[in-house]
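Hey, sorry to bother you again with one of my protein questions. A protein chain has come my way and I'm curious about its shape. It would help a lot if you went through both lines with me. I owe you a coffee for this, so here goes:
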Amino acid sequence: MEQRMEMVGGGTLLLRQEGPRVRLEAERPSDGRGLYKVWLHGDRGGKLLLGTLVPEGDRLRLSRTLSVGELERAGCWPDFRVEAPLAFTFSEERGGRWYCEQHPDRLVSDPVLRGQLRSPMPCRRGREGFWLAAPFRTNAPVPMNALFCLARLERLEGGPHLVWEFDGEGRPKRPHNRE
């Protein structure tokens, strides 16, 4: 059995079932914006990360072979949809410019977060709030570790940064997929 599916976010997924194994080949044009992840969403609530699309020429591709059993256990078989959201951007967001905020603790409303912000941070203001960023390092503590799960990984100033979004009142916002 062979089936071609359109991915939400762009591109296609080619599915080939060969007995108890399923070959999944995802592809989309390379737009230079960043890295895209491929997710399966089962019609009964399951969710499975297939992986990250990698550059091959002018395309981004991913190939995986899974068993039908693995897909069933993940709740993504036989009925599912597929999406390829932008997971890591290579360039700064459009909008305001980043600057060095000397007192980021004054911007946030939560007293716990204020206590975790002890040094200057890159900041960018927008119409409905602001963003704070910190270099991403595996060998150093994370500022605002209470919000680590809400950070987006983005490339700023030539390197990876954790970026948190806040509303106009200084409350953290949940990240969302940007198209």
Summary: The chain has two helices and 14 strands. The longest helix spans residues 68-73. The mean pLDDT is 87. The helical segments are 68-73, 111-116.
